[in-house]
Amino acid sequence: MNLLLVSATCHEVHRLIDTPGMRCKSTGQFYSGSIGNVQIDLLITGVGIAAAAFQTGRYLTLKKYDLAINAGIAGSFAPDPEPGTVVRVVEDCFADFGVDEGIRFVAPFTAGLAGPDTLPFSGGRLIPPVFRLDRQETNTGGPVGGIAIPETGERHATGPSTLDRLPGVKGTTTFTIRTRPSAIRQVMTYTGAAVETMEGAAFFYATISSGIPGIQIRAISNVVGERDHSKWKTALAIQNLYETLTNFLTELST
Q: Which of 4, 92, 169, 251 is the most buried (most CB within 10 A)?
């Protein structure tokens, strides 16, 4: 299996970068290694929507990948999921994509700027195929060690794998870090999201457009709007993210 692992910063995945056998191909940007029969290319895109979309899309054209994973930390809009929790983002959207009418934010699809079901969107959302670890069905055309099936309304798979046990949540992706409670509430109302990142929807935009199964795994480091970093649990989030990723990658390799 060829796997592309995408993260915005080295810091979020530094434990994986330091794994024995992981080789630096481009300083601060691209690493390569393997776990069992899974060949892993680790791409550091840089922070933000533009960097994530361009870099992910670019690398998906340079090599044939069976699966792509976006991994990093995220903010939570509510106490649950609490900091330290690792979640699987099962659908995403752009928080800044639309028309700001002052008292409300209107989706571009409602405003007639884009079609809600034009690839890669589905109902105005970015919803990747469900990826399931199912070694009994690897001859059905899916990647070795797992299969990707169309979304059918089920928000995350049920089963024994590490991936399956992660809570499935809705995400939103933003250009802007908001601190005003009124602005944060507007995003929550507009998107219905539980967690916020600065790259997730861009990653899904690239993988869905490319026809590559994509998984977004995030560890909650803070509550959205909290700028006192002493209240964040970044170290715990990164440790839990590392353990989740290594467990899942090991399962893929067996």
A: 92
Q: What digits encode the pLDDT tens for the residues 46-58? A: 999 999 999 999 9
Residues 30, 15, 46: CA angle, nearest 5 degrees: 40
**CATH number of residue 200's parent domain:** 3.40.50.1580
Say whether 132 sits in a helix, a strand or coil: strand
Report pLDDT digits (tens) over 145-177.
454 544 433 333 334 689 989 999 999 999 999
| DSSP letter (8 states) at residue 128 | P
Q: Specify the amino acid at residue 116.
A: P
Closest CA to 75 of 182, 186, 192, 234: 234
The domain tally of the chain equals 1
Find all residues with CB under 8 Å of 159, minimum gap 6, and list them. Answer: 132, 133, 134
Distance of CA 120 to the CA centre of its chain: 15
Which candidate, 197, 218, 235, 237, places its Cα nearest to that of 83?
237
Burial of residue 154, with CB atoms counted within 10 A of its CB: 0-12 exposed, 13-18 middle, 19 or more buried:
exposed
Q: Which domain does 72 fall in, by range?
A: 2-253
Do residues 47 and 9 lie in contact, with contact meaning Cβ atoms separated by under 8 Å? yes
Is this prediction's pTM over 0.70? yes
